[in-house]
Amino acid sequence: MPSPNDGGAAGKPGSASKPPPVVFAIANQKGGVGKTTTSVNLAASFAAAERRTLLIDCDPQANASSGVGVRRRSVEVSLYDVLIGQAALKDAIVATEVPLLDVVPATQDLVAAELELVDASDRAVRLRGAIAPELARYDFVVLDCPPSLGLLTLNALTAAHRVLVPLQCEYYALEGLTHLMATIDRVRNGFNPGLSVEGVVLTMFDGRNSLTHQVADEVKAHFRVFDAIIPRNVKLSEAPSHGKPALLYDAQSKGAQGYLSLAREIMEGAPAAADAASRQRADAAEAERQADSPPTTGGARARDARPRS
């Protein structure tokens, strides 16, 4: 198995200081809206900007894993082993072909995690506890959530600082957005008070379709929508079959450029210094607690980007 990328402190090489790491959950309970495509290509775009990035595949379908070149038969330690307590997160980290990008792969065994953890008192915070000791190594952690609002998604939302919502511009996807926001509110109230909604990214955008513009206008009236738009693009669809992010498959494609623009927009909208320092202290305390006992409460604070009323 390849070893994870080496090298001291996380961050842009040669930088004197860096902001604290940020954990993103890429979530939407509706399938087929571009969650995995967004997770893989956003993570690759962060890495291309010289930000050390960890992609964690929280979906039993393991498409994010194969999307960065990890073959299922080659996986020795997966996220399943981490969640049930048989391995530490560092043992599951695998280097990818993209410099500065690591991945924690998933396998179909992850389906069983929800059943095996049903009686565990810390079942909602297992992922947060596993990430905490490794967080300082990275600038960004990207969590690819499954298309459901079950225990795996709950773990991702509890571990995250911010949620990014990929949304296809069609009405069924729009209806599901309300349920997702209600779930995020429940997680914020029960497990992770610092969780914030970073924004909505429009995916599979077809500007020739009038319905696309109608749905986009409706979303923009209630939520923060990124300026970067991900178009329908053949290269984005082809890249996973080659086990590569679009940046490696065709960096000049409109899809790859769209995700580079999204990563740049996110990085330029850095959290306020006070919130960043607060989150850094909270994450350090969380890592210390992991040495003695499983986490039970809390969550690091991030910049408040809640939906506009």
Helix content: 25-40%
SS-based structural class?
A: alpha/beta
Output the radius of gyration: 18 Å
Classify the beta-strand content into a percent band: 5-15%
Structure, explained:
The structure is a single chain. The protein has about 300 residues and is an alpha/beta fold. It has 13 helices and 7 strands. It has helices spanning about 35-50, 65, 80-85, 90, 110-115, 125-130, 150-160, 170-190, 210-220, 235-240, 245-250, 255-270, 275-290, and strands at about 20-25, 55, 95, 100-105, 140-145, 160-170, 195-205. A 7-stranded mixed beta sheet has the order 3-4-2-5-1-6-7, with helices on both faces. Helix 1 crosses helix 12 (about 255-270). The longest helix is centred in the middle third of the chain and has 20 residues, at about 170-190. The chain is globular. Residues about 5-15, about 270-280 and about 295-309 have low confidence and may be disordered.
Ordered list of secondary-structure elements with their pairings:
Elements: E1 22-26, H1 35-48, E2 53-57, H2 63-67, H3 79-83, H4 89-92, E3 94-95, E4 101-104, H5 110-116, H6 126-131, E5 140-144, H7 151-159, E6 162-168, H8 171-190, E7 196-203, H9 210-220, H10 234-238, H11 246-249, H12 254-268, H13 273-290
Parallel strand pairs: 1-5, 1-6, 2-4, 2-5, 6-7
Antiparallel strand pairs: 3-4
What structural keywords apply?
40% helix; seven-stranded mixed sheet; alpha/beta; 309 residues
In short:
The chain is α/β, with parallel strands linked by helices. The protein has helices at residues 35-48, 63-67, 79-83, 89-92, 110-116, 126-131, 151-159, 171-190, 210-220, 234-238, 246-249, 254-268, 273-290, and strands at 22-26, 53-57, 94-95, 101-104, 140-144, 162-168, 196-203.
